[in-house]
Every structure is written in C-alpha cells, then in structure tokens.
C-alpha cells in the first residue's frame, strides 16, 4: 500500500512539475515575438504555432504569424493566413493593416484598395488605415493620396504617420505652410525614430524655401484663414531671415512669431503646437528645442559643439521631452478640406 501511495504521489508531483515547465500560450507568444525581433523567423514560428495549439484560432497569435511570414518574405503563407482575418467578427484595424502590407508587397493593388476601403468603412477613425491607403496611392503616383492623409489627421490627430506623409507631400508643393506645421508636429509625436532625421532636414529646407522663394504670400492657399494668419505673422520676421536661415536665426524668427501669434492670433486659432512652443520658452528650453530640430540638419559639427557648450541646457530639454507625451487637442484642424 505504501508503494502504491508513493507511486501516486510521485506521479502527481511529476505532473505538477511538467505543467510548471510547459509555457502557457501567452509566454510562447512573447517568446515568438522575441525571436521575431531578433530576425529568427523559424524559431519565432515554432513558438507561435505551439501557442496556437493551446489557443486555436486566436486572433492575436494569427496576426503575429502573418507578420512573421511577412518579415521573412514568405508572402504566399502570409496571404493564406492573413486573408481570412478581416472577415472575422473580431477583426481589428491591425487585421486590415497586416493584409494590406502583404498586398502591397506582392503588388496586388486592386485587392489592396478594396481592402482599405472596407477597413475605413469598418474603422472610420483609424489613422493608420488612411495613412497606408494614401501610401498605396502615392506609390502609383496618384496624388489624391493627400486627401487620405488629411482625413487621417482630422480623425486621428495623434497618429504620426499621416503627418509624416503629408509633410513630405506639401514640401514639394507651392503651399509651404502645412509642410512646416505638419513636419514639426510629426517630430513632436515621433521624436526619435529612423524617420525623424529625414523630416528635420525637410523642415529646415522648408523654412529656406518659405523665405528665399518669397512665397510668404505668393502661391499660398490664401483662402485658408489659418494659412493667412500664419503668413501674416511670419512675414514680420523677414528682416531676421535676411541674415540666412540657420538654427540660430530660426530660434529668433520662431520666438518672435510665437509671441506675436499668442498675442494676436491664438484666440482665433488655438493650436497645441504653438502652446507647446510657448511652454518651452517659459521653461527656458526653446533654444535647445530649436537646436534639436534644426542644429544637426544644418551642420552636425556645429550642433555637437553647441550641445557641449550648453550641456545643462540641452540635458534639461531632452529630459523634459522624453518624460512627456505630446498630444494634439480636439477641434484644432484648420486645413481646407480637399475635394
């Protein structure tokens, strides 16, 4: 009897130990994501499939598998698993986004466009779907892409992708104001990514074009009241701009612009971007902010020298910046609607 009891106890202990050693679906999924981030797509798939055995047909695990196949360029498998996802009753924005990425990779533009239209109908306030639909149109040189980026900004004001795309679009048009405004908002929303250096250079060059091409009134969208107000205040800074557009002169231009805007235009056009600039000025961080925006884009060596000689000032700003989240306010969309 003692032997039987000992055997039963040993068996129960071994089963408990086995259960403790077998990872649950969530742990397996996280392990798969770690492998995926490391570029080990085969091991990632092993973990995801094991997780799927425990939670069959789980949407989150299936999305990870689609993304893993996408990253490993196995688009046929990504399409096979990803295509049913938007049809599910629990489909989310990412279900559409992932399948759209696969369609774009295999250049199935017709199916991709149908997918985005369906996704936007299901999720009309999704900035990511407007952004990626616009990118698909832009890739085939369809300039109606800007309508979707603008709509994305209007309905999902804190999603950075639409500002990124719209800023680049306006940079190449005669209407420079929105390129500058959207470019800076993008940098405040997405301050440290592979795309930030690109947009910093674009915004710096955009200020040069604004003054050098004398486009403060010429060829601008003067029907837009926000643009008219912006250009009116900016035109008062032309004398400073005559000294050249550098990080230092832009600090002066933008300081005077912001002070005048807050005094004369803020009541008619309250805008979170200019509120943020005012906050930085009052906190003694506006010089460092402008150096962060324009310094390296203008001259990396000069910028590095500035941060060395103003180390405490620059550290104060970067610490403040990394410790807060920039958020746009409601009812501050002033762009003219695109037909």
From TrEMBL:
One matching Pfam family is TPR_19
Q: Signal sequence: where?
A: 1-19
What taxonomic lineage is listed for the species of origin?
Answer: Bacteria, Pseudomonadati, Bacteroidota, Chitinophagia, Chitinophagales
* Cytoplasm recorded as keyword: no
What's this protein's name?
Tetratricopeptide repeat protein
**PROSITE patterns per record:** TPR, TPR_REGION
The record's listing under SUPFAM superfamilies reads: TPR-like (SSF48452)
Which terms are listed as keywords in the entry? Signal, TPR repeat
